[in-house]
TrEMBL record:
Gene source species: Hymenobacter nivis
SMART domains on file: AAA (SM00382)
One Pfam family in the UniProt entry: ABC_tran
Gene Ontology molecular function: ABC-type ferric iron transporter activity; ATP binding; ATP hydrolysis activity
Name of the protein described by the UniProt record: Sulfate ABC transporter ATP-binding protein
InterPro entries reported in the protein's UniProt record: AAA+_ATPase, ABC_SmlMolc_Importer, ABC_transporter-like_ATP-bd, ABC_transporter-like_CS, ABC_transpr_FbpC, P-loop_NTPase
Transmembrane segments: none
Length: 261
């Protein structure tokens, strides 16, 4: 579906992306892990048409995207901060893209109601964005993206500003909805656990060079992802906790009064 070849970008003579190449077919989620400043956002902006590459090719379903303006690429770019229209309620925020496309009112109502139910937002349809929690606002933003059935969804650490539990909930929601609707996505993050949770394919971006992995095991084993070290850390914590509990049991038994003869 998406074909990227030899994509290169520099800023002020400094390379940001170096010969980026990958393929992405319908329904896949490519999770790209990388540290801040590695070029993840620049890659997304080039795909969205917000930045022009210095070299390389970019095609979607065989169409050369480079001359196509951003508003005609049928892609949606989601940021950390959900950019909702403050003067529109939840229902109208989600419906906005359909109104722009002159979809009949009855069809708009039907589609938006169904999507709000899917996103657990039915009871919030008439609320203004400022009346919602951070996670709810991000769900509205997600709904506004999905309603227009984009050819490609670009996600720039979209859950990075949420608390841990809400972030985990949003990751599961993204998984469920993307699978149900066969959404093709490029999801960039600096969180290895998030990458493992949302991705069906995996990449690592380091100093502008993208490494693609043939399997999740290769992704985990690559020392740059730090996943193996993190797993070892939690295993050591579990082992320490287990030993401490056993020691408490032994001490409790030793301190217990002897039974009377």
């Amino acid at each position: 579906m998406l074909q990227v070849n030899a994509l290169t970008k520099q800023f002020g003579g400094q390379p940001v992306l170096r010969d980026i190449a990958f393929r992405l077919v319908k329904g896949e989620v490519l999770a790209v892990l990388g540290r801040s400043g590695c070029g993840k956002t620049t890659l997304l902006k080039i795909l969205a048409g917000l930045e022009a590459p210095d070299a390389g090719t970019l095609s979607l379903n065989g169409q050369n995207l480079l001359p196509v303006p951003p508003n005609e690429r049928q892609m949606v770019y989601l940021y950390q901060e959900p950019l909702l229209f403050p003067h529109l309620n939840v229902f109208e925020n989600v419906a906005f893209g359909l109104h722009i496309r002159k979809v009949p009112k009855a069809e708009v109502v039907e589609q938006v109601r169904a999507l709000l139910a899917e996103l657990d937002l039915t009871e919030h349809g008439q609320k203004a964005p400022h009346q919602l929690s951070g996670g709810q606002r991000q769900r509205v933003s997600f709904g506004r993206a999905l309603i227009i059935r984009p050819r490609l969804l670009l996600l720039d650490e979209p859950f990075g500003n949420l608390d841990a539990q809400t972030r985990a909930d949003m990751q599961q929601l993204f998984l469920r909805v993307s699978r149900q609707h066969q959404i093709t996505s490029l999801f960039v993050t600096h969180d290895s656990r998030e990458a493992l949770t949302v991705g069906t394919r995996f990449g690592y971006l380091d100093q502008g060079v993208l490494t693609s992995f043939a399997s999740v095991n290769e992704f985990i084993q690559d020392p740059r992802t730090n996943i193996q070290a993190e797993l070892s850390f939690w295993e050591s914590i579990q082992q320490t906790t287990f030993q401490a509990k056993n020691m408490n049991v032994v001490l409790s038994a030793a301190e217990a009064p002897l039974p009377r003869q």
